[in-house]
TrEMBL record:
This is DNA polymerase epsilon catalytic subunit. It comes from Rubus argutus (Southern blackberry). Signal peptide: none annotated. Belongs to the DNA polymerase type-B family. The keyword Nucleotidyltransferase applies. The keyword Membrane does not apply. It is an enzyme of class 2 (transferase).
Length: 99
């Protein structure tokens, strides 16, 4: 976050664009994320398998709460800095995620 505050001192437009890119990238990664085994930490290979070879169960690497918390943090920055586009983008993502 220190990095963003530094950027803010120089270029607000650059900061908003950087944050927008992060939001979009995080959102894409969140939806594409692999499932990992809770027991051996192996990434799920077959999409049909309910359980890992070690008999452990799978879980998403990042849970929805964690994801929403990060988005909320960026939304707060957007509101505070009056980054309209960034605010709309994160609000939309949060709305989709919570519904
Ligand atoms: Zn396993």
């Amino acid at each position: 976050m220190k990095f963003f505050l530094l950027l803010l001192l120089y270029d607000r437009e650059l900061m908003e664009n950087t944050l927008l890119q992060i939001v979009q990238q995080r959102e894409r990664l969140y939806h594409l994320q692999d499932l990992v085994c809770l027991r051996c930490n192996q990434v799920k290979a077959a999409h049909l398998a309910e359980q890992c070879g070690c008999a452990g169960s799978f879980s998403c690497k990042e849970d929805a709460t964690e994801f929403c918390e990060k988005m909320q943090l960026i939304l707060n920055i957007a509101i505070h800095q009056k980054f309209q586009l960034l605010q709309e983008c994160t609000e939309w993502i949060l709305e989709v995620e919570k519904s």
